[in-house]
Amino acid sequence: MDHLAEKYLHPRKIPSTACSGCGLGQVHKKVLLAIEESGLGLDDVVWGTGIGCAGRQTFHTWRGDNFAGTHGRVYALATGLRVALPPEKKIVLTVGDGDAFGIGLLHLLHCARRNLGITVVVADNFGYQSTGGQFGYTTPPGMVTDSSPYGNREPGWFSEGSDIFAILKDAGATFLARHSSFDGEEAVKSLVLALANPGFSLVHIIYPCVTHFGAVSLKTRDREEIYRWFAGIFAEGEHPGPHFQSGIYHDARGKRPEFASALREWTKEFGREAGRA
Fold it and tell me: What is the pLDDT of residues 194-236, one digit of tens each?
């Protein structure tokens, strides 16, 4: 058993309940490496999960405190916990592309607006793979899926030069980074910085789905071919798909007050003023 898994995870969820060849394990391993490199233990982190592949694979996997939220609502729960818990306690959320950029987007934007002290890890497999492989908000244009048999014709958050990160930055996020699940130490470094940020951090990690996206959209179940396609979207040069830049997109750590801490200070000041009245 991997020493990180033995240290941090429930044995019954090891190695994984994900499909064979799924990249989610790579994503979660990077989160554990970042927690380890940050010197954090089980008592230092509260781990929240959304739904879909990303939520199902991580719910009740962390041996410390954890919670789950329904369709896009994990951010509302995290907001309450952030206000209630001491500032040194880290709140990590692992969510999918639907939870982050679809049904949960409005809640996510409010967390960025407040500069809420949480770290959101978006595990993106380009669609609703856990419910059969329907197209979603990040599915590349033209891709065939179970719900777009003639190719996806909806513009997404990464089509036509758009990027959801621009919206999150304008909303007030103080740390944004993007990586492939194949990235090594660079992805872990971004996650370490995200955890250290007192305010709102989001790390977007794109990973391969073999069962649906590979089989239907890429028309192959050959893992090497699927992995090569996903690695190619971060590579230089021509590629039959979207293209992304790996690394830190926006770093404004410490530039804005964290919401819960500012609220505590205001409450103390309010109490002092009330006592003098």
Answer: 999 999 999 999 999 999 999 999 999 999 999 999 999 998 8
Strands, sheet with 201-206, edge to edge from the N-terminal-most edge strand:
66-68, 45-49, 90-96, 119-124, 201-206, 175-180, 247-251
Non-local (6+) Cβ contacts of 67 within 8 A are 46, 47, 48, 49, 74, 77, 81
Q: Which domains does the chain have, with CATH numbers?
A: 12-276 (3.40.50.970)
* Residues contacting 140, CB < 8 A, separation 6+: 126, 152, 156, 158, 159, 241, 242
How far is the C-alpha of 243 from the C-alpha of 80, rounded, in Å? 37
Is-above-0.90 flag for pTM?
yes
| Terminal CA-CA length for the chain | 62
Q: Which residues contact 127 (CB under 8 A, 6 or more apart)?
A: 97, 133, 134, 135, 136, 138, 139, 145, 209, 212, 213, 217
Closest CA to 113 of 69, 170, 196: 170
